[in-house]
Automatic annotation (TrEMBL):
Lineage, broadest ranks: Bacteria, Pseudomonadati, Bacteroidota, Flavobacteriia, Flavobacteriales
Record family assignment: Belongs to the UPF0057 (PMP3) family.
The keyword Transmembrane belongs to this UniProt entry's keyword annotation: yes
Top-rank taxon, per record: Bacteria
Sorted UniProt keywords: Membrane, Transmembrane, Transmembrane helix
The organism of origin for this protein: Bizionia argentinensis JUB59
Principal cellular location given in the protein's record: membrane
Transmembrane segments: 28-47
Gene Ontology terms: cellular component: membrane
Name of the protein described by the UniProt record: YqaE/Pmp3 family membrane protein
Location of this chain's protein in the cell: Membrane
């Protein structure tokens, strides 16, 4: 995970997971709308997952 990807996930989490699939984008977007912190945490977890 690059520095720019982490920075993007902090500023706008849905943009950081664009290449991870529609489901990931939707989950992160909904969590981001509910609150900034849950969206950032979800984006970082998805980006750190080595299986995806």
């Amino acid at each position: 995970m690059s520095f720019w990807r982490v920075l993007l996930s902090i500023l706008c989490p849905p943009l950081a997971v664009l290449d991870k699939g529609c489901g990931s984008i939707l989950i992160v977007f909904i969590l981001w709308i509910c609150g900034w912190v849950p969206g950032v945490i979800a984006a970082l977890v998805i980006l750190n997952n080595p299986n995806r």
